[in-house]
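User: Good morning. I'm curious how zinc ion would be positioned relative to this chain. Could you predict the structure with it bound?
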Amino acid sequence: MAYVDANRARFVDDLIEWVRIPSVSSDPAHAPDLVKNAEHLAATLRNLGAGRVEVWSTAGHPAVFAEWLGAPGKPTLLVYGHHDVQPVDPLAEWITPPFEPSLRDGRMWGRGVVDDKGQVYIHAKAIESFVKTVGRLPINLRMIVEGEEEVGSANLETLLRERAEDLAADFVCVSDTAMFGRGIPSLCVGLRGLAYLEVFVDGPALDLHSGSFGGGVANPVNALARILATLHDADGRILVEGFYEHALPLKDRERREIQSLPFDEKEWLRSTGAPAVFGEKGYSTLERIWARPTLDVCGISGGFQGAGAKTIIPARASAKVSCRLVPDQEPDDIVGKLTAHFAGVAPPGVRVRVERLHGGRPYLAPTDHPVYEVAKRAFSRAFGKPTVFMREGGSIPFVRTIADATGKPCLLMGFGQPDENAHAPNEWLDLENYHLGIKSAAYLYDELGRM
Ligand SMILES: [Zn+2]
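Assistant: Good morning! Here's the predicted structure, ligand included:
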């Protein structure tokens, strides 16, 4: 750890160099920058004396692979990260330019500093600290850094399949999430999935005069309102038959873990601007956000939306509906149940159809596996505080992709802060966290080497 302390400033400078490359994966104009970005990382890793460093081309942007296999008999860790970044718009809101990283208030500011270049470098610098001091890592380590995470990881599954031998490992570590709060080492052990659909209610072939036809045919907007009103009871419980069938109930241990977190509900509510918390009865707010499924209408359209009055029976109405899913719910199954529900409650006189928009499967870490205790210990050694298990209400589909492809426990060891503006203007990285993150990764390798 003396090496990590002694090189603290240079580790920051090195990251600044990498962040200067504008690796925006969504913009085809930046495609050459993604190649340059991948080459830059590959060169950095090559300098660490990796056994093998390769830039893997894909049907989209390239990925970087590296491996250090100098610890026979020791476990192999696969580290996942991504080298692409989000777009920067609206550019005018950046205090300093996104690709000219600046240091102020103990933070580095720039696009990709925390999502995910800083977190990739946390591992690279931890590796360096072993290589430059004792000459080798205490474990075998493989690293895959893709270039398409921000655009849906379209080629990741293919890479994992075609390169399965290169990527074989005992454990996976993903560093691309945030901590529960400042200075609280946190392992994310659950992610919600998603089922997103649009329901359409069709009536007459075109908008009709509500005087000449009103009372004679069904109104699709009225019908849609009736349909949507059947989805929840007054306490927020979802009334779709079988919706909760595969939702794993929270274990007492998990509820205790969630309850023990320093969650300030009043402050959280203030940050939303909503007048009160609300949701399924019998669960705390964190439980509802992290570990219970939801069904939300995200938008409704239909009928006359202009100024003033227009007297019509609208021809059609529609609603976009998103469900956040928990293990072991499956998006296809939920869409099927909702489709059946809509058909069952559709009032007479209209046609109802459902279109599936997109989906992703939830993830729950196998926390009974001893590697989670090992990771907790390593994380706590660096931060000097107990490590907590947390979950994430959002969806990170690639985690499930990796977990399923490898069949190995996945450690979501993230070093972000909850308010670091990832994906927004003025993204920042807490420099203290970067430093302690490097130590955490080093301790993780060390502890895994003793397993
Ligand atoms: Zn990310």
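The mean pLDDT is 96. Residues 431-449 form the longest helix (19 residues).
Let me know if you'd like a different ligand tried.
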